[in-house]
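Record type: monomer structure entry
Structure origin: computed from sequence
Chain ID: A
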Amino acid sequence: MSPKYKRILLKLSGEALGCDANGQGLDPDSVRTIARQIVKEAKAGLEIAIVCGGGNILRGAEFSELGAPRASADYMGMLATVINGLALSDALEQEGVDTRVLTALEMHQLAEPFVRRRALGHLSKGRIVILAGGTGNPFFTTDTAAALRATELDCDVLLKATKVDGVYAADPNKVVGAERFEELSYKDVLTKELRIMDMTAITLCKENGLPVVVFNLFEEGNLGRVIRGEASCTYIRS
């Protein structure tokens, strides 16, 4: 089956790159496994932008609860996403594709600053674009950054990678037989307060008509199946 999308934004949690049951630290094997799935689709012609979280290293909101000012803690979290972005970039390039890391916070020795036209140029040349540093502002999550960048870059869809095959009414790892939703509207997510993405991110997707697909990245080859419309997942749209 041919791909459903031409350009995607893939949202990865920091924990997806982690090295233990809690997804802490950076695990080279996890990074390479994810990179191989992404490269397969990039080589097939898909344009791919990626936003990484930083929770495997530091979560700003949690760190602020220990006494750090929230703004400072959030900036530390943004730096964590840069570490993850650079690690993923190296793994992708070892698999034979060109990448560019663009950051919302300027750090010229490591990455390019995010400029919309520059990012679009890289995508059109077949490079995988990794967008690090969140939105560049405290108090916003990387989910919101993903929704923002997907909208800015005219992506066809935001693919939210998780450890389960969609959105459930309750945690399927804790509640046996929890209902799984095949499809939800943005309004459903907001009114039911489903914790898929933060409310700011969902509202941004709703206002711009950006569909979201929640899927399990940890099933081998599932990224490709989602792109072809063959995977078990949850669609969020109007």
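Annotation 1: The chain is about 35% helix and 20% strand.
Annotation 2: The chain has a mean pLDDT of 93.
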